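User: Please predict the structure of the protein below. I'd like the answer in structure-token form so I can feed it into my own downstream comparison script.

Assistant: Understood. Taking the following sequence of 211 residues as input:
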Amino acid sequence: MNKDKKKVLILAPHTDDGEFGCGGTINKLIGEGHEVYYVAFSPCKQSVLSKYPSDILVTEVKAAVNVLGVKPENLILLDYEVRTFNYRRQDILDDIIRLRADIQPDMVFIPALTDMHQDHKTVAEEAVRAFKFTTILSYEMPWNNISFQTSCFFKLSDENLDAKVRALAKYESQSHRPYANGHFIESLATVRGVQINTKYAETFEVIRWIN
């Protein structure tokens, strides 16, 4: 990104999606002085393990984005029921249009259009409809992506990657997932770094680039 300060919007269908997909980049952009907004559409109350409070992910996302440097007032939590987004497509589009009007972002990060999770795919498709005149990048979630074009890379420092790992560690309720560990996160960042001859990176698919 150029040196001008930008407004950046992260659209996360569920709490933690934004951290997994672009947590290092979020930390990098904030460190460069850009204003980052994080929107989670669902706290996934219906799928939380029974040993945790149903709203545990609300607590965890607040702690996680704080590690990345997102201002508390820039975290927006919606309350859609998990795995029902495709039935509420118009409501989600209306919410995204309101976000567009309120924030007026210069860049938007979304899941991949080829993401196999119905909630992720719905948010991605409606975001593309809403942000016709805005730079849009899709973030990588290898366990969900049917295909993914690695057409854009953000270099990450050790500090950026460390912030991503520490942020995701706040999600104790998700620690049972095979990709929710520091080793996997660092390994993926290393692979993407090798592709552009740097130590660590995150990769994105360019949906639209406006400069």
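That's the full token string. The mean pLDDT is 97.
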